[in-house]
Design brief:
Layout lengths: L5 E7 L13 E8 L7 E4 L8 E6 L2 E6 H10 L6 E4 L1 H4 L5 H17 L3 E4 L9 H16 L23 H8 L13 H7 L4 E5 L2 E4 H13 L5 H5 L1 H19 L4 H7 L10 H7 L19 H16 L3 H4 L8 H4 L4
Helix pairs in contact: 4-5, 4-7, 5-9, 7-9
Amino acid sequence: MLSKTEIRILDLLPSSGLNNSDVPIKCQTRVVPFPTDIEFETLSYVWGTVQDVTTISVDGKDVPITTNLAATLKRIRLSNEIRTIWVDQLCINQQDEEEKGNQVALMGRIYSTTTQCLIWLGEIGQDISISDAQIALDYIYYISEGKRKQEGTSELSASVDFDSVEALREPMRALHSIGLKNNPWWTRMWTLQEAILPPKACVLWGQLSIQWELLVSAAQRWVSFPYYDPVIYAYNDTLFNIFSQVMGFVFAKENRQGPLDTAFRWSFRNASNPLDKVYGLIGLFPAGTLPRVRTCDYGLSRATLYAMFTADLIEYHQSLHPIALRCLRNLPEILNDFRW
């Protein structure tokens, strides 16, 4: 079992120049003291269902992982170099509740000290062409920079008119497939800190990629775009489903709020384990902010943990506001029509 001052990192072995999709995934693990001088990347992804699994080789043994993680590893694997990463599913012994608690307590620092977080949004849908997906990402670049990429950097969209609603119909359908309404990455509790804390991030969509900073820049410009822009007007719902979420991350990163406001703002996010609705927030705050729940004890009942979290909130804010605040959408229907 790992100690509270150690982490396990994963060396993703190269495909040796062969067809990446045909080469079995092989990894080796290392236990290192934490903090460490070893550079590593982190992954942010949706686990998928535990029924949908495959096996890979880890330290010479067959280890089951979700197929979504396997797809991620194949996409990020290099052809001739080892890629060193930290990924929760393989770097934490998920069967050891004590190790899991110790490592989850470190995750905020792990994501803060990574060289880069790789955000996996999944494979491109079978009904979407790669060219349309690329055009969609290039349009995000166009919004961000106010200009096209330099010639030769994106041949697929060189002839597309970015001011034409009709020309962007299929690319916008492609973009819609990875927005809030269709991609669960935007609604998972753990992806919150995984997007906010790293110093750098790259979004991966099948074989395509875009820097997180470009998404942020595009979202910030989108907010100030004139409403009469024909493309923005026609596809505002699609753009809203991505840019509004990105702006939420920006707000959370630049305007760090207290734990009560943070918990309230992100309460819509989901977690397979209800305890992670609390533990997924801990890394966003300085050590000592939430002393009762910071041990990340997975042996606790949900009621006990939530009571501890409430006590931490009351103590932190020096107020009973945490137990007085109720979201209006959860009030009985008879009260929803009450006019104050």
